[in-house]
Amino acid sequence: MSNIALSWAFKCHVGNASAKAVLLYLADRAQEDGSCAWPDVVKVRVATDLSERTVRAALKALQERGLIVPRETGLRLNMRNETGDRR
Q1: How distant, in Å, are the alpha carbons of 13, 39, 47, 52 from that of 64?
Q2: What's the predicted TM-score (pTM) here?
Q3: Residues 58, 65: contact at Cβ < 8 Å?
Q4: CA 63 to CA 84: how far, in whole Å?
């Protein structure tokens, strides 16, 4: 768990509550540098009480807003971006 990532996620302007819940879930499981393994959609669904379809849509929205960046080994939280603007 990374307190830095969680603090960043709480400050982010995400645009909707579902995407914010998914971002907070990812931040809670991230390393200090913002890296984390690929999320298991079922685990995210159970933890957030969202549907699988909503979780997938939230992950897509977070990626489109530049808040998460896919990598070969997982994903990285883009902790330089708090506005949800693509940077």
Answers
A1: 13, 17, 23, 18
A2: 0.88
A3: no
A4: 10
Whole-number Cα distances in Å, 34 to 46, 50, 65: 22, 23, 16
Name which of 13, 33, 50 is nearest 25 in CA terms. 50
CB 36 within 8 A of CB 61: no
Task: Give pLDDT tens digits for 26-74.
Answer: 999 998 888 887 889 999 999 999 999 999 999 999 999 999 998 888 8
Rounded CA-CA distance 77/79 in Å is 6
Which strands sit side by side in the sheet containing 35-36, from one edge to the other? 35-36, 74-77, 68-71
Rounded distance, CA 50 to CA 3, Å? 24
Q: How confident is the model at residue 85 (pLDDT cuts 50, 70, 90)?
A: low
